[in-house]
């Protein structure tokens, strides 16, 4: 039976509602890893050179699985892809607990890698909500799902206190408690998607477009990386969108990954260990709030002003952020404000860039390009986190921020060039 327009609106409303609620719980997964990852890595590895390793493993997990999850979505729908990713992330949270219990550094990295699949799910969810969205509301619908991560993602870094209490009840080390809470949140998120994401938005969209996906051209390539690359090469606007998203994510991850260690150096001499950890958790929470809390505003601006102006605004915000944190590294208020701006800039670029990618491609091209975008975005984040640790040791926290500023400027110039080529 053909889906009527009122039914389609009802399906889209249900999709937005289901994914938004699921994101609230699944967002708990990354928060604890982001807040405690660099500190645990130094404690277990015994060297600050490994400070960025956990965030590197986290983002590598996202990068390595974004395309396979998009291929799974193409084959079996969004529900299967999203629940599979979250199931792996739950196992990852369990490995993080085991790492704390056994002081096992390899377990820590393996757990972070699998938790990265939760990030891949969060990224794919923002595209899933656009499968049936009308063009005039595409940016806002996407941003609502991004916004829903706020509650879980902001709460995650602040699970140190509740996690310690839970750990006491369970008889495990205090630093393992937050990861137990993260796992429970992701279990709830996976259950919500499995039960309520029906009908599947991607499969419904495919039915409305006439059935099976294209069997020829780039989308049918046996190499999904090559397929995504070919699509972007043929569409400069889509390439511009992905360039901006990649740069914003690399900068955000690099600076954010090093900030807890920098704050520990700055505050450790004057505050107790738990006080320092609480301060770091609070700062990372504000940063994550900047990433997600105002995403509906970014979606509104995207629909109102257009994706490209909103992306450029986000890039300008990122430059302001790294200038603030780099020029006043000893002032914790300035560092915190800079991290909030870092989150806001990331939000603007990610929401507007993702909307620009979807709107610039035909339906059959979107999922391969989305998978390529998420994979390269996460890979850039992994490179940023990996490079930030040695850079921190060589040129300090201000130097990390200076390199981040240069990357944003270069990406903005590429974006402007690709935008001109598309006209």
Q: Helix- and strand-based class?
A: mainly alpha
Please give the radius of gyration in angstroms. 20 Å
What integer is the average pLDDT? 86
Assign a percent range to the helix content: over 70%
* Number of H- or I-type helical stretches: 16
Share of β-strand residues = under 5%
Count the strands? 0
Outline type: globular
> Secondary-structure element sequence?
HHHHHHHHHHHHHHHH
**Low-confidence parts lasting 5 or more residues at pLDDT below 50?**
1-6
Please give the alpha-carbon distance between the first and last residues: 41 Å
**Major sheet: size, sense and barrel closure?**
none
Transmembrane segments: 80-101, 107-123, 144-170, 176-197, 238-257, 277-298, 310-328, 334-358, 379-397, 403-421
Protein name: MFS transporter
Membrane topology: Multi-pass membrane protein
Main location: membrane
In words, what does this structure look like?
This protein has 16 helices and no strands. It is an all-alpha fold. It holds the Pfam family MFS_1. InterPro entries: MFS, MFS_dom, MFS_trans_sf. It is a multi-pass membrane protein. This is MFS transporter. It is found in: Cell membrane.
